[in-house]
Specification:
Elements (H helix, E strand, L loop, with lengths): L1 E3 L23 E3 L10 H9 L11 H11 L6 E4 L1 H12 L5 E5 L4 H8 L5 E4 L19 E5 L11 H5 L7 E5 L22 E6 L12 E5 L1 H10 L7 H10 L2 H26 L7 E2 L7 E5 L3 H10 L2 E5 L10 E5 L3 H19 L1
Parallel strand pairs: 2-12, 4-5, 4-6, 6-7, 7-8
Antiparallel strand pairs: 1-5, 3-9, 8-9, 10-11, 11-13, 12-13
């Protein structure tokens, strides 16, 4: 681990969707972490049913109350946002921060938002040699804003809730991005709903598990005074009526049960992908892990060339070198169903052979 403040050459605005735009639109997508085959029909119908109310301004009270009930907190501790990405911008602009620190490798949008707001951002870089594991002592004591993902994108590491809680300090805002937590069976290690951790801010996304990236819906859980600060930084009516309908539906008992089932199915599919990837160990492929998210991070020789050959063979994967703390030898792979994974593993075998020539 080391800390740094130089943004370096990492493209913090590069995300997985760039791999499947334009000439990549026809590729099999293992680059984007949104669950494939979603949203389910019942959710699409529910969202479509909200369209008759588009003439009225959005009213988020019912959705906000539903999210609060889902986590067992008062509505004053909930803020609905246009995806978790908006929440990062609100945090960067609304909070008085002197020394923000982002724990990397992780989703780059929090740092990008902080830098765009004029902040000088410190980095704590977790190391592959340590399994990308968190030690609370690595974070500078004077950091007054700390951002960490759990499970972390792109490493797929699930940090113990206790280890993250140890980052809390008087006068510090501790931001935990739990965008992928509902993909973890039982949501173990979740901090959402906790009110006993000082300065805790938890971000959740409803776009990943439910395939709603195009709708933009997420929420913030935090102390009422923090929620009030963030809400003042929002424009009027920041979340659309269809997105509010989706939020309310996605925290219903039916949806929570379906998400729990999907998390177990994903764990099975991930195990199949990991087992297949481990067959390439003799060729130098290494897995970060144990993986707990809907994606895995791999390190392999000539990864840039392998990625190019995979595109030629019909598969898009996420390059890793845009994440601080990673280099060109890293790739992130989204978990997909067994049939897709089997086809991908065959393509990976071919791509690695071509890259060796």
């Amino acid at each position: 681990m080391h800390t740094e403040r130089d943004p370096g050459t990492h493209d913090l605005r590069h995300h997985g969707d760039a791999e499947v735009r334009d000439d990549g639109a026809e590729l099999v997508d293992l680059a984007v972490n949104v669950r494939a085959g979603a949203p389910p029909a019942w959710l699409r119908e529910h969202i479509a049913g909200s369209l008759g109310a588009l003439a009225a301004y959005p009213d988020g009270r019912a959705a906000r109350a539903a999210v609060a009930a889902r986590h067992g907190v008062p509505v004053e501790r909930v803020l609905l946002t246009a995806g978790a990405a908006e929440a990062f911008v609100l945090l960067a602009r609304a909070l008085e921060v002197r020394r923000p620190v982002v724990v990397h490798p992780q989703f780059t949008e929090p740092e990008a938002a902080l830098r765009d707001a004029g902040h000088n951002v410190g980095r704590v870089l977790l190391r592959a040699e340590d399994g990308f594991r968190l030690d609370a002592g690595l974070v500078p004591e004077d950091a007054d804003l700390v951002v960490i993902g759990n499970p972390t994108n792109p490493t797929s590491i699930l940090h113990p809730a206790g280890a993250i809680s140890q980052l809390a300090r008087p006068g510090r805002t501790l931001v935990v991005d739990e965008a992928f937590m509902d993909a973890v069976p039982g949501e173990r290690e979740a901090l959402a709903g906790r009110t006993d951790v000082a300065g805790l801010v938890v971000l959740r996304s409803l776009t990943k598990t439910w395939g709603l990236a195009g709708l933009r819906i997420g929420y913030v859980l935090a102390a009422p005074e923090t929620i009030a600060d963030l809400e003042r930084a929002q424009p009027l009516w920041p979340v659309s009526t269809p997105a509010l309908a989706a939020a309310q539906a996605c925290v219903s008992p039916r949806a929570l049960a379906e998400a729990a089932h999907a998390a177990h199915r994903l764990a099975t599919d991930r195990s199949h992908l990991v087992a297949g990837l481990e067959e390439f160990a003799a060729d130098g492929l290494r897995l970060a892990g144990p993986a707990e998210g809907p994606f895995v991070l791999v390190r392999l020789p000539r990864a840039a060339a392998v990625r190019r050959h995979l595109r030629d063979l019909g598969f898009a994967v996420r390059r890793g070198d845009t994440f601080p703390g990673l280099g060109e030898e890293w790739l992130r792979l989204a978990v997909r169903d067994r049939v897709t994974v089997n086809s991908f593993l065959q393509a990976l075998d071919r791509a690695m052979t071509l890259a060796d020539r």
